[in-house]
Amino acid sequence: MSDLIVGEHRCFDGRLLYCEHQSAVTNCRMRFSLYLPPAAAQGPVPLVTWLSGLTCTEENFTAKAGAYKKASELGLAILAPDTSPRGEGVADDEGYDMGQGAGFYVDSTEAPWKPHFQMYSYITRELRELVLQEFPVDSHKLGIFGHSMGGHGALTIYLKNQDIYKSVSAFAPIVSPMNCPWGHKALGGYIGEDREGWRQYDSCELIQALGEGLHRSKILVDQGLADAFLEEQLKPELFEKACAKVGQKLTLRRHEGYDHGYFFIQTFMDDHLAHHAALLG
Ligand SMILES: N[C@@H](CCC(=O)N[C@@H](CS)C(=O)NCC(=O)O)C(=O)O
């Protein structure tokens, strides 16, 4: 048994693991949860990584998304990391939208964030390699999805690493941090005020820059129309336009009455898992 495991629960005949390790990338202890479906007892299974939104730890998705019944049936493993480095020696901000709980899945270049806030490298390199090494997961069948700040993380990480991730989807993603207050604050703080550097973390910019080089897997995005952040922060129409410009297939579903929270997420979770299972095979 892996010595990363600090808690284990049987769940829909699979294993829900809580894990902890010392990260060389974020320079602190990091926690994540990992669901292994029953099929993982027979051999490597596809893995989807879930990236959570602002204020979340690994626990929000694990306890509130209602994902594991379907993941068990489909034979999908799900990895849910924390959203930032944490601890007393780690920089923080008074606001909920910066610092601990708000890593934005970028590699910081600026003080005071740079020594720990390296979430892009942590997710795409260190954590991925650790999970592949320690658990029965198929390195050729990796997908990524997320919510809000984590939707931004999933879309940008997928677009920058299509050799690694074969499927992507998002719930209420921040599609263009270059065009919303959450993004301006986070990218300005973590990357610095030179907006040229922001383009590498903006899914609308990335998709247009890739153009014909795009992987042609369909992207799935769900958005609630009663989401309080829709107009000021999320702006899915910008991603819709960017995808249309380069011929990227996108299913963007707008749902009357749904807000930004995990009840919205759990309502459409099965569709997202089926989307990933179909693309990962
Ligand atoms: N005012 C909210 C804003 C943050 C927020 O809505 N976070 C979303 C992601 S952007 C979330 O998933 N919150 C935790 C939860 O619903 O379990 C708070 O402080 O919780």
From TrEMBL:
It catalyses: S-formylglutathione + H2O = formate + glutathione + H(+). The gene is fghA. The keyword Hydrolase applies. This is S-formylglutathione hydrolase. NCBIfam families: fghA_ester_D. It is an enzyme of class 3 (hydrolase). One of its GO terms (biological process) is formaldehyde catabolic process. Belongs to the esterase D family. Gene3D superfamilies: alpha/beta hydrolase. Its EC number is 3.1.2.12. The active site is at 148 (charge relay system), 227 (charge relay system), 260 (charge relay system). One of its GO terms (cellular component) is cytosol. PANTHER family: S-FORMYLGLUTATHIONE HYDROLASE. Keywords: Hydrolase, Serine esterase. Serine hydrolase involved in the detoxification of formaldehyde. One of its GO terms (molecular function) is carboxylic ester hydrolase activity.
